[in-house]
Amino acid sequence: MDRQKGIGGGVIADRLGRRWVMLSADVLRTASQGVLAALLFAGHAPIWAFAVLAGAVGVGNAFFAPAFNALVVEIAPSDEMSDANALFGMVASTTMVVGPALAGVLVALANPATVLALDAASYAMSAVALASLALPRSAATERQSLIADLVEGWGEFRSRTWLWAITAQFIVFNLLAWGPFLVLGPVLAKAYLGGARPWGIIMAFYGAGSVAGGLAALGKRPRRPLVVAAIASFGYAAPLALLAVSAPTIEVAAGALVAGLGSAGFNVFFATTIQQQVPPDAQSRVFAFALVGAYSAGPIAFAAAGPVAAAVGAHLVLGVGAVSTLLASLTVFAIPAVRAVRWIPAEGEPAGGEKGSARWR
Questions:
Q1: Which fold has domain 3-133+144-340?
Q2: pLDDT, tens only, 289-298
Q3: Residues near 104 by Cβ (< 8 Å), separated by ≥ 6?
Q4: What DSSP assignment string belongs to 161-215?
Q5: Where are the domains of the chain?
Q6: What is the rounded distance in angstroms from the CA atom of residue 61 to the CA atom of residue 28?
């Protein structure tokens, strides 16, 4: 994700409305993928066109994501926000597993241009669905400058220790663990597991774990949601550690299943906590700061994983990633501000034996 574009998307979404920003992002992504499909159908798709149009899709993603996370507050009842987050995560995890396989079949039966055309159509369908979505009317608010909006959003972000601590956790995680895992995992799968098929099995188990984790999160209202999220994040270390010691495919796949379960649990309760604790008119900006911060180290990890592994060995890199993941999760778990956050029950919902913290504190 482009850092400035992601934060800018959050500012604009809070300012102009989440749906309009998401619609604009879908139109951009539809056009980008459609143009690329047309170039491939015509047999003339230069590399620079791939780069420019892929960049345009990335811009659309950067604007869509923070607006989407904040839109849940507008469309889901307060007592069902965590369930909505779980269902959205399950759909995303399912498509992560099914999508590449389906794309491979379509490429084999047709051609890449057809796949891109269908991708463009999917973004168009998203735009149609968003346009028809009924949203409650928002009260008009006096707007300030874009810079003032940005500063205000940053203030909401940095004032919450639990929020920037977890963002820092995932900067470390993406830099030292998940980025190297995605780069070096296929390399090790080819080197000692037998090739692409074992890696496909491993990632399928990760997706299955994410779906199962989403199902397990449905209906859950933990008193301390961030404690649950922190515990769930320990699971990310499992597949890295198993690859680092050259475990067989079935064991690495089991570790990926654990990571998927943890990923779903973390995402559901972290997102729900932001939705409960941050004022509604600042949520896109806060989500943008969290997402951009967490993923900012990803490109560095992708670029550096190969050279570092060539120098010290892929197994050592993944072993360090597993250890750093455990240490980062343990550090976050130990922070008092993380343990202090309480689930805020909706009106009429049982508080689970403890009174919820003040909303948006």
A1: Growth Hormone; Chain: A; (1.20.1250)
A2: 888 888 888 8
A3: none
A4: HHHHHHHHHHHHHIIIIIHHHHHHHHHHIIIII-SHHHHHHHHHHHHHHHHHHHH
A5: 3-133+144-340
A6: 10
